[in-house]
Amino acid sequence: MSRIYNFYSGPSTLPLTALEEVSAKLVDFEGAGMSLIEMSHRGREYDRIHNETIALFREILKVPDDFHVVFLQGGATMLFGLVPMALIPRNGHADFILTGHWGVRAHEDASTIADARIVWDGKGDGFRRIPARGELALSGDAAYVHLCSNETIGGIQWSEFPDTGGVPLVVDMSSDIMSRPLDWDRFAMVFAGTQKNLAPAGMTVMVVRDDFARTARRDLPSYFRLDLHIDNNSLFNTPPTFIVWMMNLTLRWIKSIGGMAEVERRRDAKAGLVYSAIDASGGFYTSPVDASSRSKMNVVWHLHDAALLDPFLKEAEKAGLAGLKGHRSVGGLRASIYNAMPVEGAKALADFMNHFRERHG
Ligand code: PMP
């Protein structure tokens, strides 16, 4: 078997131990004579995996007792609709901070059904930085404030979350959940698609504070009712059992390596390696984002000569480094260095970048 280093932005690389365990148990789950993904989601085996996964998530991220952990299908995109639908009251409004593609998408979706106000827009300077608290024109009486913690395409990330003065803060953490400990006092809701740091694509995890969740409308179709998901422990309808199982294995891997402290240590080592290769290149590689706003999950950069992009990608692929092409909307290069990317992968990429520069610089 030869595994390459996979820098795709999501779906993305998963822990090898998780893939190995799922392949060993896929056909016959622990002697049951059938696969876990063939079993009832109301059965004993799945029930154990389901509850253990929620418990592991809570333990690793130190989720307080007054928050619920909810599993939903439909991707983070579904939450762009569900959250405003359920949580902006009639005649109410929400505040949106636009730091890039995903903040814009959330705002656009909310605008189709409610009053969604822009309280900061980074478009004018090319979405290259995270705003300071003083720049946000928060309305003060919004149902909530929405922001995206890590812009997967633009490569900028909030390092500290703003104090919203008692207004509930809703954060799309799709591309940096589980990459750092969280100060839960700051948030009313956090949500994330699973396909970067948690599992394969197919599920969204929502962590929501009880008092905020209880303000959600109930005059909605059943799937959009938070109370039904919460009160049924994410078993209101059929959950994506395979994704929950994979998330279970990913979380067990995180625990086995030393939890959040080790995740953070590796994250900083990996980001440091790739950003150093950019910064030490004498302008051969350039970063389009402000240094203070750089993402530690998605490193975005450009080549000084755009004609070198194709050769870079082709040679990288040959060297076993896949998925480095930047998003089509911004071009250039991007390395997604999620939790399951080993430090050796970032080292291999940095070495490749240095050698490529020596040959083409
Ligand atoms: N938010 C962010 C930050 C993302 O990176 C993505 C997907 N890459 C989404 C939302 C949308 O997620 P999904 O495709 O699962 O709906």
Note down, in words, how this protein is organized.
- The protein is an alpha/beta fold.
- The chain has two domains: 17-255, Aspartate Aminotransferase, domain 2; 259-360, Aspartate Aminotransferase, domain 1.
- It is built from ten helices and 14 strands.
- The strands form four sheets. It has a seven-stranded mixed β-sheet, sandwiched between helices. It has a three-stranded antiparallel β-sheet with strand order 11-12-14, with helices on one face. A two-stranded parallel sheet has the order 1-13.
- The mean pLDDT is 97.
- Bound molecules: 4'-deoxy-4'-aminopyridoxal-5'-phosphate (PMP).
- Residues 10, 75-77, 102, 148, 152, 172, 174-175, 193 line the site of 4'-deoxy-4'-aminopyridoxal-5'-phosphate.
Quick overview of this protein structure:
With 361 residues, the chain is of the alpha/beta class. The chain is built from ten helices and 14 strands.
Draw up the topology in text.
Elements: E1 5-6, H1 16-25, H2 44-60, E2 67-72, H3 75-87, E3 93-98, H4 101-111, E4 115-121, E5 145-148, E6 150-151, E7 156-157, E8 169-172, E9 189-193, E10 204-209, H5 210-213, H6 226-231, H7 241-257, H8 259-279, E11 285-286, E12 298-303, H9 309-318, E13 321-322, E14 333-336, H10 343-360
Parallel strand pairs: 1-13, 3-4, 3-5, 5-8, 8-9
Antiparallel strand pairs: 2-10, 6-7, 9-10, 11-12, 12-14
Helix pairs in contact: 1-7, 2-7, 3-4, 7-8, 8-10
The structure holds 4'-deoxy-4'-aminopyridoxal-5'-phosphate (PMP).
